[in-house]
């Protein structure tokens, strides 16, 4: 008696479930159908490979044989027995540390200058943005190599003043700096965003401040900078991630070696060497995941501290 | 000691376009002066030139006798309240008030009492730690005024400070600003396009139109003796009625005109040649329906009646097709479609010549 009652409740529940499902499908099915291309892309090309690489990072894998599970050996080796890992970390961190603030300062400087309501603004905007379109390309990296070579344009220019410049690119003291300069030169996209941010600040704010007796400089750091912090924050996060991921220029300038003496061995370049020069896919995957964690930590840190210095006006 | 402002032949040009055409104005120390005029007439531009936010293209601007044309805004001893409030959104109310004093290099010990005094005058002490976005419109307006007060300026400038507030708050702030003026005694210049604000707040009203000064005077002088048709139409609410009329005869003491089919005798001479056409102006509140109150003006067909409780507005048409507005005290029983007779007191009639000047 009770058993039968339970069963009938189960059946009723099952029927109810089915009808909930089919109603859900009726209401939302079309939407999900439209999502299918994206879903395929996301699962097939982003999430899937990411998870597989996470798995591979715990294996030895040379593309030819089956991956062999090695536990955390790859990660342990990284921190205990791999001087190139440490070297590439140093290079990438130096690059991020110098290129991001320099680039942001430069972008802000140009944006403020352009925001002074000058004639021909659209032209200047386009001209200054151009390097950002070209900068990441192989051609510009090649050009950069010519510019900073021993007999390059930079040294030809310096020679006019009687200065004999070194070969910037093949001197380990300077080679990273040529890459930092190259990255700062591509200040266009943060500049455009800064410019948009500056446009958002109402003119009467500056009028009130000038009636309050504030000089241009005081207006800049008491009004402009604080009101621009959301944009500065956005640019800083995006540019930091970009800088951690930088690859092409270092690859071209050093011919893929990260030389001289590992001075341009970006983390991504080292990762590339491990993966596609030595076919240590497991180790390369582990390197990739360490980078992911580092970028996540940086971004998380930025968001956590943002409430102390970013002013949101909502 | 309050401060005078003198404008001589002030001109403003934007490139080729001249928007202020030689304004002469003498502002008496301690007065509350209101610039009023229709949109685009140059009120804000004139105010911003006094403030130093716009360069002056021509003429002289003196404050207390000292030429100010080239003096930067901050050194003119002026504070301005903006229509948008222009509060610094990232600073607390306290910081907003203190900003000018900090900029001037005052020490905290000097700043605090001044901020607190301004905050007490404006009753914003409980709000001092808030950010502007946590304030209502009226509170923001108070903070904006407070920011002007703490600097202890010689002159206060207001550019339509109440236009973002609702009607009730506007009346309340109007009273408060007037009270503030009495307490502080500074010279204040106030821009508005609302002639009610101008009438209620001003010691002196400056009526601007198209970059010219039309008339300067006390509110009731402008109301009673407008110098031209523009001022007559702009000052006073509801607007003055204008009827087409013809001057028939003038002698030393009186004039005869025909208006809306009626012959009317005015007890004064009109400065125009007989036979010329003139505008006959009469305010709605100076028209009555009873014979006891004046001369018969015209029969009106009543098109619309508005009962305001305290007053009754009648919109009518004369036999020759001109419209006339009548404002009667109290609640009057007038039916739409009926015919009434308008009477006017000839001493309260205004005549305007063909060029708009009062005659
Ligand atoms: N930057 C400018 N360039 C060119 N013309 C301007 C500029 N600013 C104002 N004007 C013109 O000057 C005239 C006066 O403008 P102003 O802002 O002083 O008017 P206003 O009386 O304050 O009007 P409102 O009541 O609408 O605020 C207007 O015709 C306007 O088009
Ligand atoms: Mg204006």
From TrEMBL, chain A:
This is Sugar ABC transporter permease. It comes from the Bacteria. Its main location: membrane. The keyword Membrane applies. CDD domains: TM_PBP2 (cd06261). The keyword Oxidoreductase does not apply. GO terms for cellular component: plasma membrane. Gene3D superfamilies: MetI-like. GO terms for biological process: transmembrane transport. The chain crosses the membrane at residues 32-58, 93-114, 126-147, 174-198, 219-238, 250-272, 284-304. It is a multi-pass membrane protein. InterPro entries: ABC_transporter_permease, MetI-like, MetI-like_sf. Residues 89-302 form the ABC transmembrane type-1 domain. Coiled coil: none annotated. It holds the Pfam family BPD_transp_1. Keywords: Cell membrane, Membrane, Transmembrane, Transmembrane helix, Transport. It is found in: Cell membrane. Belongs to the binding-protein-dependent transport system permease family.
UniProtKB/TrEMBL annotation, chain B:
The keyword Transport applies. SMART domains: AAA (SM00382). It is found in: Cell inner membrane. GO terms for molecular function: ABC-type maltose transporter activity; ATP binding; ATP hydrolysis activity. It is a peripheral membrane protein. Residues 5-235 form the ABC transporter domain. GO terms for cellular component: ATP-binding cassette (ABC) transporter complex, substrate-binding subunit-containing; maltose transport complex. Pfam families: ABC_tran, TOBE_2. Gene3D superfamilies: 2.40.50.100, Nucleic acid-binding proteins, P-loop containing nucleotide triphosphate hydrolases. Keywords: ATP-binding, Nucleotide-binding, Transport. Belongs to the ABC transporter superfamily. This is sn-glycerol-3-phosphate ABC transporter ATP-binding protein UgpC. It comes from Arsenicitalea aurantiaca. The lineage of its organism: Bacteria, Pseudomonadati, Pseudomonadota, Alphaproteobacteria, Hyphomicrobiales. The gene is ugpC.
């Amino acid at each position: 008696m009770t058993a039968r009652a339970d069963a009938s409740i189960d059946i009723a529940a099952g029927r109810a479930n089915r009808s909930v499902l089919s109603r859900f499908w009726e209401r939302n099915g079309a939407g999900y159908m439209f999502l299918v291309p994206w879903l395929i892309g996301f699962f097939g090309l982003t999430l899937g490979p990411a998870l597989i690489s996470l798995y591979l990072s715990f294996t030895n894998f040379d593309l030819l044989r089956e991956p062999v599970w090695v536990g955390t050996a790859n990660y342990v080796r990284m921190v205990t027995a791999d001087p190139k890992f440490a070297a590439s970390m140093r290079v990438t961190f130096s690059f991020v540390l110098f290129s991001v603030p320099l680039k942001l300062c430069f972008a802000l400087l140009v944006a403020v200058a352009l925001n002074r309501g000058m004639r021909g603004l659209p032209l200047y905007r386009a001209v200054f943005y151009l390097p950002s379109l070209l900068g990441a390309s192989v051609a510009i990296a090649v050009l950069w190599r010519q510019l900073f070579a021993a007999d390059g344009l930079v040294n030809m220019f310096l020679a006019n003043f009687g200065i004999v410049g070194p070969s910037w690119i093949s001197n380990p003291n300077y080679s990273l700096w040529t890459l930092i300069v190259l990255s700062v030169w591509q200040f266009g996209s943060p500049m455009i965003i800064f410019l948009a941010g500056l446009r958002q600040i109402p003119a009467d704010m500056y009028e009130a401040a000038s009636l309050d007796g504030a000089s241009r400089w005081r207006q800049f750091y008491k009004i402009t900078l604080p009101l621009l912090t959301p944009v500065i924050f956005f640019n800083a996060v995006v540019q930091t991630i970009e800088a951690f991921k930088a690859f092409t220029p270092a690859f071209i300038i050093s011919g893929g070696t990260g030389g001289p003496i590992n001075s341009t061995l970006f983390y991504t370049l080292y990762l590339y060497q491990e993966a596609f020069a030595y076919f240590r896919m497991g180790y390369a995957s582990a390197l990739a995941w360490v980078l992911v964690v580092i970028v996540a930590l940086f971004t998380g840190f930025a968001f956590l501290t943002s409430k102390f210095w970013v002013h949101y006006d909502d | 000691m309050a401060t005078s402002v003198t404008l001589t032949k002030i001109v403003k040009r934007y490139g080729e376009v001249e928007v202020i055409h030689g304004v002469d104005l003498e502002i008496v120390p301690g007065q509350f002066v209101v610039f009023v005029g229709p949109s685009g007439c140059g009120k804000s531009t004139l105010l911003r030139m006094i403030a130093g936010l716009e360069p002056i293209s021509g003429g002289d601007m003196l404050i207390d006798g000292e030429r100010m044309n080239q003096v930067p805004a901050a050194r003119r001893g002026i504070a301005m309240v903006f229509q948008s409030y222009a509060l610094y959104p990232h600073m607390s109310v306290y910081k907003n008030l203190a900003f000018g004093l900090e900029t001037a290099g005052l020490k905290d010990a000097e700043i605090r009492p001044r901020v607190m005094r301004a905050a007490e005058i404006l009753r914003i002490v409980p709000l001092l730690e808030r950010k502007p976005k946590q304030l209502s419109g009226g509170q923001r307006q108070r903070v904006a005024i407070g920011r002007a007060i703490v600097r202890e300026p010689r002159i206060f400038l207001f550019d339509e400070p109440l236009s973002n507030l609702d009607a009730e708050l506007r009346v309340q702030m109007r009273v408060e600003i007037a009270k503030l003026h009495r307490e502080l005694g500074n010279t204040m210049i106030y821009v508005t396009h609302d002639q009610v604000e101008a009438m209620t707040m001003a010691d002196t009203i400056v009526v601007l139109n198209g970059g010219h000064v039309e008339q300067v005077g006390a509110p009731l002088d402008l109301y009673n003796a407008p110098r031209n048709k523009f001022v007559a139409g702009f000052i006073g609410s509801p607007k003055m009625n204008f009827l087409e009329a013809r001057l028939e005869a003038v002698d030393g003491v009186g004039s005869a005109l025909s208006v809306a089919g009626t012959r009317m005798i005015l007890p004064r001479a009109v400065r125009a040649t007989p036979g010329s056409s003139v505008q006959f102006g009469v305010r709605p509140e100076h028209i009555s329906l009873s014979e006891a109150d004046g001369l018969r003006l015209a029969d009106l067909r009543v098109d619309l009646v508005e009962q305001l409780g305290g007053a009754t507005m009648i919109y009518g048409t004369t036999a020759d097709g001109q419209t006339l507005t009548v404002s009667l005290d109290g609640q009057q029983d007038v039916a739409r479609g009926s015919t009434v007779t308008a009477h006017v007191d000839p001493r309260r009639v205004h005549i305007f010549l063909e060029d708009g000047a009062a005659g």
